[in-house]
Design a protein that fits this description.
Radius of gyration: 16 Å
Number of strands: 0
Distance between the termini: 25 Å
Order of helices and strands: HHHH
Helix content: over 70%
Length: 116
């Protein structure tokens, strides 16, 4: 799991480097980075599952937090982002990831959870 956390930290660094706008508390970038980091940490912790012996349920147990993390990151883009194309992509991410979360729960006969 340390490798996964290291990978997540590396991804966070790449996201920061790929940003065209400088990090500035005045324009919401620091709040965005804080939310992004929080969503990623929460996702990585939730993806650490104890194998149940059922590959399908284990897949869902790992993928649902992964998809929820994507939803939370996309919500942060909607709160702080200014690029209209990225905002539309973020909206699409929210819709498709929530649909996939629902489909995975249904596929393994798990009760549906209310969107967060």
């Amino acid at each position: 799991m340390l490798k996964l956390r290291t990978a997540a930290a590396g991804l966070s660094a790449l996201i920061l480097l790929a940003s065209n706008a400088p990090v500035s508390a005045g324009n919401g970038d620091s709040q965005f980075i804080t939310e992004l980091g929080s969503a990623m940490n929460k996702m990585m912790i939730a993806m650490e599952i104890r194998p149940s012996g059922d590959v399908d349920n284990d897949f869902v147990a790992s993928m649902v937090p992964h998809h929820q993390g994507a939803v939370e990151m996309a919500q942060s883009e909607l709160r702080y982002g200014r690029n209209e194309q990225l905002r539309r992509i973020a909206q699409e991410i929210i819709i498709t990831q929530e649909e996939e979360i629902t489909a995975m729960h249904l596929a393994v006969n798990q009760p549906l959870q209310a969107p967060k």
